[in-house]
């Protein structure tokens, strides 16, 4: 008796949990992209500061990335192809985390450029890579929830699939 | 078989067909949303690419007024004639640049007077975000270029730092930039250049060159091609800087 009731209660809760994860991740990407899109040159410098690629490549990455982030944010907001978007978001976040670990291991003193245009830090300010990574891992968890349980409320997916 | 049984079979068959239909529908939805989403992401990427290409056009050589007096690929203003080259990349909004100026400025002036060094000032604009959208860094760098054309770079450089606005304020407006110019003896040509943003795209170009050389913070101080800094990427002290110059002079 209890066995049948427990999972059903959880299974009604999941779409709501996924909805929160979806909207949260949407906000993350919209904010991150929105803060960068207004100054693409600065975005390019932030990428360049990681010293992972040539400046010309960094310029392209720095210009494309904010638009991608905004697009991902909007797609998450309306909730279309949620699992696929969650997978793409997870890959992006893993790349970001990798980048921060790289910067850390190289002893670079840079702002990660996660929610800003980033760049080198000067005098007095120190990088807080541990916190940056922790935060990104939190976002990764949101993406994980959506990968696992992509069905959520108020989503285009739900509408198209004929969920109530 | 009773009638009731047959009815149940039919219902079950109907249910299976409906389930298959639903599964089919899911599959179609998944395929089409995937296609749509990938297209949207590709378009977003292309938009970014397009905006970048558009911005690159603005810093093409033909679009930029490079001040005639600029050296080092037209990105800097030279002071002094000494054998050791000191490149200073600075942003007029950057407090640490001001600090370096206060800390080491007099030593640099002395070295210039002693004909030990040639200083090349590169006014970059990486802190445009810190002036509430008024792009103070770019305007100040552009004004500094106009001052250089008027033969007063060093003087203007000094008054800009003396009157440095707070980070995340609006910065100095153009009228104030012109007033400071007048105070060091710059005239109408200078005022026009500031108001017409004559050298603003040049400042962007200098910043591009700065980034492409692998530098990302201000001030960046380079002595004979070698970056000089304190421990942990901090500002070099005057001693560290002097040592770098001495060893470069060899």
UniProtKB/TrEMBL annotation, chain A:
The chain crosses the membrane at residues 20-38, 58-77, 84-104. It is found in: Membrane. Its main location: membrane. Residues 16-148 form the Methylamine utilisation protein MauE domain. InterPro entries: Methylamine_util_MauE. It is a multi-pass membrane protein. Keywords: Membrane, Transmembrane, Transmembrane helix. Pfam families: MauE. This is DoxX family membrane protein. It comes from Paractinoplanes bogorensis.
Automatic annotation (TrEMBL), chain B:
This is DsbA family protein. It holds the Pfam family Thioredoxin_4. Residues 83-233 form the Thioredoxin-like fold domain. Belongs to the thioredoxin family. DsbA subfamily. Signal peptide: none annotated. The keyword Cell membrane does not apply. It comes from the Bacteria. It comes from Paractinoplanes bogorensis. The keyword Transmembrane applies. The chain crosses the membrane at residues 29-52. InterPro entries: Thioredoxin-like_fold, Thioredoxin-like_sf. Keywords: Disulfide bond, Membrane, Oxidoreductase, Redox-active center, Signal, Transmembrane, Transmembrane helix.
């Amino acid at each position: 008796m209890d066995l049948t009731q427990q999972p059903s209660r959880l299974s009604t809760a999941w779409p709501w949990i996924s909805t929160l994860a979806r909207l949260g991740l949407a906000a993350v990407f919209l904010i991150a992209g929105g803060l960068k899109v207004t100054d693409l040159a600065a975005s390019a410098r932030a990428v360049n500061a990681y010293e992972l690629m040539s400046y010309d490549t960094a310029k392209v990455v720095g210009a494309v990335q904010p638009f991608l982030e905004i697009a991902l944010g909007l797609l998450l907001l309306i909730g279309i192809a949620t699992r696929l978007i969650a997978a793409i978001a997870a890959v992006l976040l893993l790349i970001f985390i990798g980048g921060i670990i790289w910067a850390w291991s190289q002893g670079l003193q840079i702002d990660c450029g996660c929610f800003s245009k980033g760049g080198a830090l000067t005098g007095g300010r120190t990088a807080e890579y541990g916190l940056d990574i922790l935060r990104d891992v939190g976002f990764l968890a949101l993406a994980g929830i959506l990968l696992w349980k992509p069905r959520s409320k108020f989503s285009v997916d739900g509408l198209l699939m004929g969920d109530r | 078989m009773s009638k009731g049984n047959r009815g149940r079979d039919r219902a079950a068959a109907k249910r299976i067909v409906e389930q298959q239909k639903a599964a089919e529908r899911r599959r179609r939805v998944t395929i089409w949303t995937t296609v749509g989403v990938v297209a949207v992401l590709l378009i977003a990427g292309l938009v970014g690419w397009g905006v970048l290409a558009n911005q690159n056009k603005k810093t093409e050589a033909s679009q930029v007024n490079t001040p005639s007096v600029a050296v080092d690929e037209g990105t800097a203003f030279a002071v002094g004639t000494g054998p050791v080259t000191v490149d200073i990349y600075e942003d007029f909004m950057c407090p640490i640049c001001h600090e370096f100026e206060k800390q080491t400025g007099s030593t640099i002036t002395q070295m210039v007077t002693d004909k030990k060094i040639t200083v090349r000032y590169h006014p970059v604009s990486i802190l445009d975000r810190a002036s509430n959208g008024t792009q103070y860094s770019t305007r100040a760098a552009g004004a500094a270029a106009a001052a250089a054309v008027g033969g007063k770079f060093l003087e203007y450089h000094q008054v800009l730092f003396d009157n440095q606005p707070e980070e995340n304020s609006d910065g100095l407006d153009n009228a104030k930039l012109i007033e400071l110019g007048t105070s060091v003896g710059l005239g109408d040509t200078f005022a026009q250049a500031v108001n017409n943003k004559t050298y603003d795209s040049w400042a962007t170009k200098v910043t591009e060159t700065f980034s492409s050389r692998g530098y990302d913070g201000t001030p960046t101080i380079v002595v004979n091609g070698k970056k000089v800094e304190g421990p942990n990427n901090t500002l070099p002290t005057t001693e560290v800087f002097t040592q770098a110059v001495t060893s470069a002079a060899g």
